Amino acid sequence: MPRYALKIEYDGRPFRGWQAQSGLPSVQTAIEAALARLEPDLPRIAAAGRTDSGVHATGQVAHCDLTRDWDPFRLYEALNHHLRLAPVSVVACARVDADFHARFSALERRYLFRLLNRRAPPALEAGRVWHIRHVLALDPMREAARHLLGKHDFTTFRASQCQAASPVKTLDALEIETVEMPEGREIRFHLRARSFLHNQVRSMVGTLERVGAGAWSPGEVKAALDARDRAACGPVSPPDGLYLTGVGYARDPFHSGAETGGLSAPP
Questions:
Q1: Residue 166 pLDDT more than 70?
Q2: Fewer CB within 10 Å, N- or C-terminus of the chain?
Q3: Which domains does the chain have, with CATH numbers?
Q4: How far apart are CA 24 and CA 188, in angstroms?
C-alpha cells in the first residue's frame, strides 16, 4: 500500500485531543473520516504526537496507507475538501517510503507555548493563548528554565496518567522570547526534545509562570526537579497556548525532493 505523510494544522478547542476515542471528537477521527470519503476500510493513521484536549498544532505529522496510488497534490486537495467543516487543515502531503513512521521515525518534537501578558483579556486570540494579567519578570524565568535543560528524571513534571516507560528525557531547548502586543506583550516559550512526557510542557510552563510572578525562586524550580515528585510541581498551565509546531526526521518528508502536495504544487 502506498504510504503518505501529512503535515497538519488544527485548532484543538473542539477536540478531546488527537487520539480517536469512542463517542468523543478527536483530530484523528476527523482526518480518518475524510480519508474514508476517498477510500473505505483503511488502516488507522498514526501521528508524531498525541496532543491533549485543547492543544493546537501548526506542524503535526501523520502517515496513512492507501490502496490507490494518489498524486500527493490531489490527495492534499481532496482531504482539505472533506475537512472544510472542521478546524483542521492538511498543509502538505508527500509520498514516503514504507518504513517511514510518523511517530517512531521522529528525531525531535518542537512546541510553542504562547502567554499573553496584559491586563485586558484577548478578544481575537481567546482560547489560543494563556492570559496572565499580572506582570511577569523574564530574567528569573530564564534562569529557572536553564535548570530544566539537559537530561533529567522529569517525574515532577509528568502527569500521573503518563504511560511513558521512563520519566528520563533530554530537553534540548527551552527559550523564552517576548513580542510586543497592543498594551502588553506575548511571552513565547520555545521547547525542543526528542520526545516529551504527558503534560510535561504545560507543567514546566505553569511552574515558570510562578517564578515570573515572584511566587517561586529559580532555585525552587531546580529543587522541584530534583525532588522527582509530582507533588513538587507548580500549577499546570491550561492547554490554550500550547502548539505542536514541528517534527524533525532524518529526511524531511516534505522537503526531500519527493513528490509533494502544497503551495509549490501545480494548480
A1: yes
A2: C
A3: 3-105 (3.30.70.580), 108-245 (3.30.70.660)
A4: 31
Catalytic residue among 11, 41, 52, 69: 52
Whether 11 sits among the annotated catalytic residues: the reply is no
Q: What secondary structure does DSSP assign to 179-210, as a single string?
A: EEETTEEEEEEEEEES---TTHHHHHHHHHHH
Mean pLDDT of the chain: 94
Radius of gyration of the chain from Cα atoms?
A: 20
Angle between helices 138-146 and 200-212 (to 10 degrees): 140
pLDDT, tens only, 30-59: 999 999 999 998 999 999 999 999 999 999
Residues in the chain, overall count: 267
Residue 250, exposed/middle/buried by CB under 10 A (0-12, 13-18, 19+)? exposed
Name the phi and psi angles at 176, rounded to 5: -120, 120
Taking each helix axis from N to C terminus, what angle separates 200-212 and 218-227, rounded to the nearest 10 degrees? 150
How far apart, in Å, are the Cα atoms of 194 and each of 12, 74, 237?
A: 22, 32, 22
Q: CB-based burial of residue 212 (10 Å sphere; 0-12 exposed, 13-18 middle, 19+ buried)?
A: buried
Helix (H) or strand (E) holding 73: helix 72-82
Task: Quote the CA–CA distance of 179 and 191 in Å, as a whole number.
Answer: 17
